[in-house]
Amino acid sequence: MDKKLTTCIYCGCGCGLYLVEDGGLVVGAYPSVKHPVSKGCLCVKGWNAYEFVNSMERLTHPLIKENGKFRKAAWDEAIKLIAKKFKAITKESGSNAVAFLSSAKTTNEENYLMMKLARAVFKTNNVDHCARLCHASTVVGLAATFGSGAMTNSINEFEEADCFLITGSDTTAQHPLIGSRIINSVLERSAKLLIADPRKIELSKYAAVHMQQKNGTDVAWVNGMMHVIIKEGLEDKAYIALRTEGFEALKELVREYTPEYVEKITTIPKEKLIEAARTYATTKKAMIVYSMGITQHTTGVDNVKSLANLAMLTGHVGFPSTGVNPLRGQNNVQGACDLGALANVYSGYQKVTDPTARKKFEAAWNVEGLPGEVGLTVTEIISALGNGKVRGLYIMGENPMISDPDQNHVRECLEKAEFLVVQDVFLTDTAAYADVVLPAASFAEKNGTFTNTERRCERIRKIIPPPGEAKADWKILCEVAKACGYKGMNYNDTSEIMEEIRKVTPIYGGMSYKRLDPHGLSWPCPSLEHPGTPYLHKDKFSKGKGSFLPRPFIEPKENPDDEFNFILSTGRIYWHWHTRTMTGRTSTLEREAPAPYVELHPEDAGKMGIRNGEKVKVTSRRGHVELAARVTGKVAVKSCFIPFHYREAAANVLTINAIDPIAKIPEYKVCAVKVEKI
């Protein structure tokens, strides 16, 4: 029996856990007592993080589709076919006729190699990953206001904060180890908890104020809080004068967002808005905490900029236990962004449009002619498959058939793909449409690093070999590059990849495997002597002065009407993770939440004669699903909520394929539906 310290595969908390091996199988997981995040604790997913690894459904051999059916293939045959097809497509239609989807579930090293494969080998910036679907708004919004699109504080700083403003984050369900710190601060230190959420989440029980706003009205209530703060003279005048610019424009815009006006837009009682504004502004150590309830809107960037404005207005950025903290969803969504699996940047957020950055990477990769135009994003890539602009697509560890909006549209586009490669641990819904499927190693079967939501880069460690002929993603990508004639992706192990990363990525400049033992370092870490950075924007913002960027309230793209008279929002639940590729193969988690459901308010259910547990039909302009009703006061009247995990009643059949014009993130949190009793 053996054990090794690694990092959890699920949410962005990045908990340290030990995997236990016996007889070639992973037989258990338990928390690291010394790890700065887990501290001897895990959520239910962490305790069961090993079970899917042993699933009999694991992919063990490459598969090639012939006459509509998959057959087993040798690695050499599969790799040569991929190289042949992708080279032929680019020769006939140009480099932008192929595209690459990287993954927030794979390692930093593998995300770096995926973007290197796209750019160095195929000369395209058509590379993206699921951050586009969750926190693209954060990267754009916070980079514009602060100069860095990341969480400003460390997780342990939650233990010393005196006030939390939480919005768009069901924290105890989505990031349980952070949620527990918030609860402990409220119960043990009397920290004030302010919630702004259309649902009554678990944390609402502990809140001093719960503002239950109408879905899609976040800019309005944030502007309303700033109106109150300025009107009552609670803004931090010295901080504003010393560290920010653009205050007068903000002051002018929020003038009209009186509590009475905001109440008409959001339904938040004006008394609650005023109390929340006063509490947040007058507390010394205050944290804004948000997640995808803020970002997944056509106004996602506006929402993020507004929260940044609120923090700067009160001087609540750039200090310990004081800042703006977007909680990253998946285990390595932060790292995938950091390492350049985005259409517009190389690793370290160095812009592809910058000639100096291109020359730097051309020299490092020993290539010429790196493209200077921004590539296509996730939703644009899928649509481009449908219209023939993209002919070949390589997907690593993503499942857009469940995770992307308007699934009927996604299905139609995947069916039109001329050549589709899917690399994964299971035969996913997306892999079913592939021409070639490559079997990948799980997190327990390879070495590498993940970067968690607090910017902590930490190790994962191989404890068992992959099943059958499965290989680590980084090894597969290197073989594809070699088959295409590129000689710049030859590595003996992942530590060599990290050495290359740190040489071309300033924020990771001081990170070697030796330095990352045992519990990692938080970027920016620019040199081998640097201790890492627990909180950002000390003394000054990354961009110099913080920029107030006032935003007016704009309605969502699709509001309810007489026919589609409910507002639908989607999200996660405690027991499952994303498309259930892993948790759906974990018996403990499946037992607790085996089936999909829609939450309905008792008043709405009563009017329609719907009882708890009865089956209903939910329809949008794009499709319909049938699932059980869960009658609960968690949602507001004329609102409903569906977890997006379940392929049996996929919420994204219903969601609208409308995107933020800047971040290109879909509006998962607001669409119009009708609910009918079956």
What does this structure look like?
This protein is an alpha/beta fold and 678 residues long. The chain folds into four domains: 2-54, N-terminal domain of TfIIb; 63-133 and 331-522, Rossmann fold; 152-327, Dimethylsulfoxide Reductase, domain 2 (3-Layer(aba) Sandwich); 566-677, Beta Barrel (Barwin-like endoglucanases), CATH 2.40.40.20. It has 23 helices and 26 strands. The strands form six sheets. Strands 5-4-16-15-14-6-7 form a seven-stranded mixed β-sheet, sandwiched between helices. It has a six-stranded mixed beta barrel with strand order 21-25-22-24-23-26. Strands 10-9-8-12-13 form a five-stranded parallel β-sheet. The chain starts with a strand and ends with a strand. 61% of the residues are buried.
Topology (elements, then pairings):
Layout: E1 2-7, E2 16-22, E3 25-31, H1 44-47, E4 63-66, E5 69-72, H2 75-93, E6 98-101, H3 108-121, E7 127-128, H4 136-145, E8 163-167, H5 171-174, H6 176-189, E9 192-196, E10 209-211, H7 218-231, H8 237-243, E11 244-245, H9 247-254, H10 259-266, H11 270-282, E12 286-290, H12 292-295, H13 300-313, E13 323-326, H14 333-338, H15 355-365, H16 378-387, E14 392-396, H17 400-403, H18 407-416, E15 419-424, E16 436-439, E17 448-451, E18 456-460, H19 473-483, H20 494-504, H21 513-516, E19 521-522, E20 546-547, E21 566-571, H22 587-592, E22 597-600, H23 602-608, E23 615-619, E24 624-631, E25 639-643, E26 671-677
Parallel strand pairs: 6-7, 6-14, 8-9, 8-12, 9-10, 11-20, 12-13, 14-15, 15-16, 21-25, 22-24
Antiparallel strand pairs: 1-2, 2-3, 4-5, 4-16, 17-18, 18-19, 21-26, 22-25, 23-24, 23-26
Helix pairs in contact: 2-19, 3-19, 3-20, 4-13, 7-10, 7-11, 7-13, 10-11, 16-18
